[in-house]
Each structure stands twice: as C-alpha cells, then as structure tokens.
Amino acid sequence: MTDKTMTADEAVSRLQSGMTLGIGGWGSRRKPMELVRALLRTGITDLTVVSYGGPDVGMLAAAGRLRALVAPFVTLDSIPLEPHYRAARESGAFALTEIDEAMFMWGLHAAANRLPFLPVRAGLGSDVMRVNPGLRTVTSPYDDGETFVAVPALRLDAALVHVNRADRQGNGQYLGPDPYFDDLFCEAADAAYVSCERVVGTAEFAKEGPPQSLLLKRHVVTGVVEAPGGAHFTSCAPDYGRDEDAQRAYATTPWPEFAAKYLDGRTT
Amino acid sequence: MTATRAEYCVIACAEAWRDAGEILASPMGLIPSVGARLARLTFAPDLLLTDGEAMIVDAEGTVEGWLPYRQHLALVTGGRRHVMMGASQIDRYGNQNISCIGDWERPRRQLLGVRGAPVNTLNNPTSYWVPKHSRRVFVEKVDMVCGVGYDHAAGARHHRIPRVVSDLGVFDFATPDHSMRLASLHPGVSVEQVTEATGFPLSLPSEVPYTREPTAQELKLIREVLDPAGARAREVAV
C-alpha cells in the first residue's frame, strides 16, 4: 500500500499560489500549525482560505498571503479577537466572504457530496445576504414552499488538518472531545495533507481509542506528516492544551518579530 | 440578605429558561452560565447544559452526553435549544451585531464575525445578554445584522427573541410592532437611567415592575455552589 508520509515542506511544495485552501480545526483548537508554518516559509500567496478561523488565518493575513477568506469568525478563543486578522481587515487587505457557522458546514457537506449547493434555514434576514450578493435562495418544491439559502459548495484545492494519530497510509485518528470538521475538509478537497502528533502502525489505532475515533479515511488523504507538537500553540487534546503564554506572545508581538522565530519552529 | 446587581442579573437570565423543558440551554458569558445552572437546579430541572466544549453535563459537571460542534448545529436547527448570546450592538427590533463596527467593507473595528447568530435566530429561541448597558450597544441601527431582529425576520416560522437582559433591566418585544420594551428594572435602577443609556426610544409600560428577588435558596446556590469565587462581580459590578 502507498506510503504517504512526507515532511511538512514536501506537503506544501505541492501547493500553489492562487489556490483555495481549507484549514481544519476550530478557533485556536487543533490547527495544523506545522503545515501553516511550512506554508509561510514558501513564497505561496494569493490564497483563498476556508476556515473556522484562528491563528492560521491571523498569520496568513499578517504575512500578506490572503487574497480572500471564507469564514464565520476568527478567534483565539481565550483571546476573543484575533489581533492580526483584525488589523488586516481594518486595512482592507483581503476580500472576505462572511457566512454563518452552519452555512459554512453545509458548504463543506455540499462539496464532499459533489452537490452544487445545499439548502439551509440560515442567513435570510441577516446581512450575510447583503455582504455576499452572490448568494442565491431556493424555494422548497414541496407543499411548505419555504424559502432557503442555497449555500454553494465550498470545494477546496487542498485541505490541511492536524490529528492526534495517523498511519502511513493516511488513516487519521482524533483522541480529543471534538472532531471539528476535519474529515469534511478532507472530503471537500482535491488533495488533503494531514499532520499528526505521531505516526503509528495501523494495528496501534485500537490501543489508542475506539473505532469511532478513526476520523479520516485514507482514500481522501494525500500526504501524512509526522509533526509532534504540530498544533502548537493551539490545543491538541488530550496530547496537550493550548499554550497560553505562546499564544499571548503571538498576539502581542509584531508579526515580523514573532515570525522570525516561529517559522523556524522555535515557538517560544 | 440583600442581592447584588450581578445576582439580579443571574436571576433575570435564569428566568429565560423557566418552563423550557428538555432543551439545551446555551449561555454565553459568565452570568448567563450561572443563570442556566441555577435554572436547572431549581425551576427547570429538565434542561440540558454544556461544558462549553463538546459535552452535555448536569449542574455538577457529570457528563451525560456528547455534543461536538456538528451535532450542536443539528440541535440548533432542530430547535430544541434556547441560546443567550452576547451583543456588541442591538437595536429596537432585536437585530444583533457581533461582526464589526463601521462599514463592513472596511470596518473601523473588526469583531468576532457573524458566528452562529444567523442560524440561531431562524431556528431556536435566541436571547441576549449585555453586561454594560449603553448607547454604544443599544443603538438606533446595527452596523451588521448578524442575529435577525423582528423587522428582518419577516415572520420566519421559528424566529423568537424571548428577552434581552442587561445590567440595568430586562427587555422583551411584547409590543404590537415587536419593538423593544422595558419589561423589568433591576432594583436600584430608574427608568430614566435606562432610557438615558439606550440609543433608541424604548417602549415603556405604564408601570414598570422590578426584576424579582432571588429566593434565599437561590442566593445560597449562587453564592455557595455556582459561583463561590464571586466571578459574577467582575462581569457586573454592584
């Protein structure tokens, strides 16, 4: 069977400027920061990022790599407002497609199911419709006749996600309390790069957690990157919690100064 | 025992879940969280509570269920939830903004983003908690409609905003045009104080009641069980 292991630098070498990238995790939780760091070391730019945003978005915005962002929020959780994202938005540095959390999820579901859209009872009446004039509505063909928003598929050129364990073939296991939407990101993407705390033999999965912790299936995974601490400074429960000191340093240090250390992997 | 302002706020938030039945209480902010747990321990024993992450817990924190984000979103659209969200801005019809201040294209201050406010307000009852009532929050017109108010909801079948609780009082939309009404004042607050701190004309009933007193048992629960460290006073000073 195909051995999909590669380094973070090899994974991002498959990406190109102008791509649409989905980034897994949620806020400042289980973000694939090792892959983001590798991405920042390349010259890749002009990206459209699709994310339940955290420091992944803040860093790419601070480094000027974003052409566009699709997100329902950007937060560091324990620091509610992401300072680098805010600065970039307030200077008009990139285009924003701001949609609701549920609309975002159904956009990924649509992409994963090869559908052009899925109807949701969300968005109508809100300014999500005003700031996204391209959003269409659809009327139920049944007797209720209700009008819904038709959330367009969020198809991705590539997805970047981080999990606790993976095998060399691309099966991925999460051991924390929430899968977030990482499997959906992989299914919605043409290529998916999965970093993990530890590469294990397939037989070891059963010792780590129950079968339902096997979140990612290898047929939607392109590359596996072993990256211990690869979500740092975001959380990767139960392997580690959020490093609040490092996150505070990130939030309060001018980006070029922080990046000078962080991009080499010296995080604190 | 004299209740503090923060404790009246806890009671006012808790009352949002009275008679709610077997639904999820989703409080955002410390005082609504204490309120939801108080409701569960007293007059709304069937409530579901979350630990703020992926677990459904009882008032003592014992896990009784799993609710990761994707299941939480299904629960929202199923309607069996009453969320109490924050609001950076709210207007007379209950439109709420947590996205940005100023022009959306180039905001003066970028905030969180719309989060789940659009889906919440069209699917399950959505109340709001504002710890510092001011004209900056209670505005004539919000800069970005995240949570949908009555004038924008166009009679959407599951849209309902039961109440807004602030550090000054409780507000509802029980008026013919669903504009915001002062429902009760927290003891020690005057009508003038509220209207002065509100950036639009409030509907005022001829006689404004006071937010009810906590019972001795409720005060004991708040002070000794739910918030013994007194964190509530940091959200609302006396």
UniProtKB/TrEMBL annotation, chain A:
* InterPro entries in alphabetical order: CoA_trans_fam_I, NagB/RpiA_transferase-like
State one molecular function term (GO). Answer: CoA-transferase activity
The name of this protein is CoA transferase subunit A
* UniProt keywords, alphabetically: Transferase
Extract the coiled-coil ranges from the record: none
- Cross-referenced SMART domains, in alphabetical order? CoA_trans
Automatic annotation (TrEMBL), chain B:
Q: Name one Pfam family in it.
A: CoA_trans
Keywords for this protein: Transferase
- Per its UniProt record, what InterPro entries does this chain match? CoA_trans_fam_I, NagB/RpiA_transferase-like
Please name the Gene3D superfamilies in this protein's record: Glutaconate Coenzyme A-transferase (3.40.1080.10)
Q: Has keyword Transferase?
A: yes
Matching PANTHER family: ACETATE COA-TRANSFERASE YDIF, CHOLESTEROL RING-CLEAVING HYDROLASE IPDB SUBUNIT
Q: What protein am I looking at?
A: CoA-transferase
The taxonomy runs: Bacteria, Bacillati, Actinomycetota, Actinomycetes, Kitasatosporales
